[in-house]
């Protein structure tokens, strides 16, 4: 008899999806199916039903998202289709086929006006289209499947894909001077640590406790602080100048103070979250 867990990971070519793929190699106690848009369009409800009907999934990790925050301002329909409607489809299929859903959301569901940081139960108030559609996705997830965990995360980076760390490393090799926003405060998340936490919930925890959980690395910094640390760790000669957000206008408003408090996931699932600098050093070591 096959007692292996069957796990679907959507958005498999993204930062988190790739980190889940790397971790999956250590888990011979489970069967994984990794999909990205070529294998499964999560905006196609019949395609979702088909893959669920054939595979008897125990868990679905939804790492797929429309994450182009600025583009979303003018592409509301696509952002909503992927970040909201599709999450409802996945949650419905999970409910129908008795599958637990772990859905990834964002700190952008908050307005960034709370300087003490955000607990899971704090009132949401997104200030851009991306945040609005991600919040709708959370709501659809819970409405359609009671066995849902939503993990809100922030400032994600990884060895894979496009992200702030890789962009800074490239610019610091190319330029003698760069400017980075210093008045947006938050917490970076190394996607490998987030993948680790998700696998901890699935494989290590004795129970699956539905609800919203925050996850980001420990420590609070600005984008300027983050860039300065990248410069120090990488040993780059490039000068990093702090600038206000007003000096770098973008289509989508950003939360100014976006701190996710992570006590709930730490205590519920006994997860020890590394400090951001420890994880940054790890990632940069791999990238170098």
State the main characteristics.
globular, single chain, Rossmann fold, 288 residues, six-stranded parallel sheet, 10 helices, 13 strands, three-stranded mixed sheet, alpha/beta, 18% strand
Brief write-up:
Helices cover 41% and strands 18% of the residues. The protein has 288 residues and is an alpha/beta fold. The chain has a single domain (5-163, 187-220, 257-275), classed as NAD(P)-binding Rossmann-like Domain (Rossmann fold, 3-Layer(aba) Sandwich), CATH 3.40.50.
Describe what you observe in this structure.
The chain is of the alpha/beta class and 288 residues long. It has ten helices and 13 strands. The protein has helices at residues 15-24, 45-55, 69-72, 76-96, 129-144, 164-174, 191-204, 223-234, 263-269, 276-287; strands spanning 5-10, 30-35, 59-62, 100-106, 148-153, 156-157, 177-181, 185-186, 189-190, 211-214, 221-222, 239-243, 257-258. The strands form four sheets. The chain has a six-stranded parallel sheet with strand order 2-1-3-4-5-10, with helices on both faces. A three-stranded mixed sheet has the order 11-8-13. A two-stranded parallel ribbon has the order 6-9. Helix 2 (45-55) packs parallel to helix 4 (76-96), helix 4 (76-96) packs parallel to helix 5 (129-144) and helix 6 (164-174) crosses helix 8. It is globular. 42% of the residues are buried.
């Amino acid at each position: 008899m096959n007692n292996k867990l069957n796990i679907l990971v959507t958005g498999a070519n993204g930062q988190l999806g790739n980190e889940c793929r790397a971790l999956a190699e250590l888990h011979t106690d489970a069967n994984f199916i990794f999909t990205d848009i070529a294998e499964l369009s999560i905006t196609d409800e019949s395609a979702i039903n088909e893959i669920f009907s054939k595979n008897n999934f125990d868990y679905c990790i939804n790492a797929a998202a429309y994450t182009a925050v600025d583009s979303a301002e003018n592409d509301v329909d696509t952002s909503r289709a992927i970040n909201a409607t599709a999450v409802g489809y996945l949650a419905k299929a999970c409910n129908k086929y008795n599958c637990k859903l772990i859905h990834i959301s964002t700190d952008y569901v908050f307005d960034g006006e709370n300087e003490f940081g955000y607990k899971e139960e704090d009132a949401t108030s997104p200030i851009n289209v991306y945040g609005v559609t991600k919040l709708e996705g959370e709501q659809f997830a819970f409405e359609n499947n009671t066995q849902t965990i939503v993990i809100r995360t922030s400032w994600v980076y990884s060895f894979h894909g496009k992200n702030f760390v890789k962009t800074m490393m490239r610019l610091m090799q190319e330029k003698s001077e760069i400017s980075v926003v210093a008045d947006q405060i938050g917490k970076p998340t190394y996607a490998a640590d987030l993948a680790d936490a998700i696998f901890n919930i699935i494989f290590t925890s004795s129970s699956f406790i539905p609800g919203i959980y925050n996850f980001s690395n420990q420590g609070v910094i600005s984008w300027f602080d983050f860039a300065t640390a990248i410069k120090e760790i990488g040993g780059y000669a490039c000068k990093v100048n702090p600038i206000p957000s007003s000096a770098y206008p973008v289509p989508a408003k950003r939360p100014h103070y976006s701190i996710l408090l992570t006590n709930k996931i730490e205590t519920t699932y006994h997860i020890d979250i590394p400090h951001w600098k420890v994880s940054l050093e790890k990632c940069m070591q791999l990238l170098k």
